[in-house]
Amino acid sequence: MNTKVSRLISLGAGLEAQQAELADRIARNAPGEGMHECAIPGVGLLRFNSPSQPTPSVYEPSLCIVVQGRKIAHLADETYTYDPLNYLVVSMTLPVMGQVIEATPEKPYLCLRINIDTALIGELQQQVTTPAPDAAASGRAIFLARTSAPLLDAVLRLVRLLDTPEEAAILAPLALREIHYRVLAGELGHRLRELCVIDSQSQRIARAIELLKRRFHESLRIEELAAAAHMSSSSLHHRFKAVTAMSPLQFQKHLRLQEARRLMMIENIEAASAAHRVGYESPSQFTREYRRLFGAPPRQEVEAARLAGRLAVGG
């Protein structure tokens, strides 16, 4: 056996050992299904014990690092499969269709979700050499990258701190800094750098998305979004769809329906009240669009989701 083959075998064994320890620690800290917040700010643990149905969800800017199982995210006609070999990066808020496709009670789907710190990205990019972002790039605000041993090593050190909260306040920021560095220095790090280039097209679209998030319940004109993004209306519409795979109006509709579902699921608000709170004037239009997105009328879909014990989450 030559040296190169031996090195590859050793590397593979190292990755498996890291993932096994990560799976054990995350499973202990996420004993039930769903998203679990932890003592480390900006970090969440996700667990599912069985495959799920395709469910609309809003993914916030984050790194999703799977340590066991497999999940897919659908955006328009594109599919992103993330598993222990490939982590998912979401650089802007995106409504997507998520589905856990590999999970059992013995080997549940386990994922670590880390919020992207754009301020930290901006600081690190001054020290990291990556290809300059292409101002005309048309890539989506979601992409996959190969999981590496150095990245997993930093993630493992972060997760170990869950058992020593007294140390987490001091050491977690260091581990998070390294994780951001590993992603930024990786094969697709330039996609994150785009967000920190002053007045880049990515940054302009991000501003439009933030405005939609803050005022999704209002009637917003495309001209108003364009002015906030410092773009013409036609340019905004074109670039927005290139990044998110939907128009600003479709994006706003997804945000409204997701928030209405949350209000009904978590706050037990009736469908008509939830529709009004998110900006719908017509209950029949709300019901029609809710059925189109979630596959069933509001009350029926929410009751079924409660029985299943699952609320759509990204990660």
TrEMBL record:
InterPro entries on file: Homeodomain-like_sf, HTH_AraC, Tscrpt_reg_HTH_AraC_N
Signal peptide: none
Any one Gene Ontology molecular-function term assigned to this protein's record: DNA-binding transcription factor activity
SUPFAM superfamilies: Homeodomain-like (SSF46689)
Keywords attached to this entry: Transcription, Transcription regulation
HTH araC/xylS-type domain span: 206-304
Transmembrane segments: none
This protein's name: AraC family transcriptional regulator
Organism this protein belongs to: Panacagrimonas perspica
Upper taxonomic lineage: Bacteria, Pseudomonadati, Pseudomonadota, Gammaproteobacteria, Nevskiales
